[in-house]
Amino acid sequence: MAQPDLSVAPHTPHLAPSPRAWLTCVMGNFEAFLQDHASCEKKASGMAMSVASHYPDQPALLMAMADLAVEELSHYREVIRIMLARGITPAADSKDPYVNQLNSHIRRGSEFFLLDRLLMGAVVERRGAERFACIAQALTDPELKKFYDAIATSEARHWTLFYRLACEHCSPERASDRFAEICSLENDIMLALPTRAALH
């Protein structure tokens, strides 16, 4: 797995490893995983655009989210290409119980909302980096392995971007404390969810 730039998060909270049963499930039904992966990339692009549209008065955040939206959409395009080459039809988007449970912990009010939204983005991308790296390691197809190695690297970069933006929004101390809280919640949520052939 590509190592993220931990200089932005020197005291990174523990990331519980994904259960082996999850990887076994994904590799046993890779078609369903690809369908979910495409959906996740599309939603990630939409999330970045949503943040950009809500904070047009913050140039650094706006540009970061605009760039991220384009990159996530390019990932979506690449997953679609892989699927179509394999004769796999994209599936309709469905609700993601992992993301929904995390989002339920976003605090309301201008003092907290953007901070929590950025840190949730960091946590989701961090988990994605870990899981894509696991998949890359398990794959035998060299082209797919190369693709998922690259995706894992991108996700590692994305989560540190979200974390840095959170530190710039408030303070490194506040961001670090809240990040630790959310990471603990994420570990519990991830381990409690049913195993399925999906990213989360």
Give a description of the structure.
This protein is mainly alpha-helical and 200 residues long. The protein has a single domain, classed as Up-down Bundle (Ferritin). The protein is 72% helix and 0% strand. The protein contains 7 helices and no strands. The protein has helices at residues 20-28, 30-54, 59-85, 97-103, 113-138, 142-169, 172-192. The chain is globular and about 45 Å long. The two termini are 18 Å apart.
Compact summary:
This protein has about 200 residues and is an all-alpha fold. It contains seven helices and no strands. The chain has helices at about 20-30, 30-55, 60-85, 95-105, 115-140, 140-170, 170-190.
Average pLDDT works out at: 94
- Which structural category do the helix and sheet elements fall into? mainly alpha
Number of helices: 7
DSSP strand count: 0
Radius of gyration: 16 Å
Order of helix and strand elements from N to C terminus:
HHHHHHH
- Taking the alpha carbons of the first and last residues, their distance comes to 18 Å
Q: What portion of the residues fall into strands of 2 or more residues?
A: under 5%
Largest sheet: none
Within CATH, the superfamily carries the name: Ferritin, core subunit, four-helix bundle
Gross CATH architecture: Up-down Bundle
Low-pLDDT sequence parts: 1-8
The helix content is over 70%
Q: Identify the overall geometry.
A: globular
Count of distinct structural domains: 1
CATH topology category name: Ferritin
- The level 1 CATH classification is Mainly Alpha
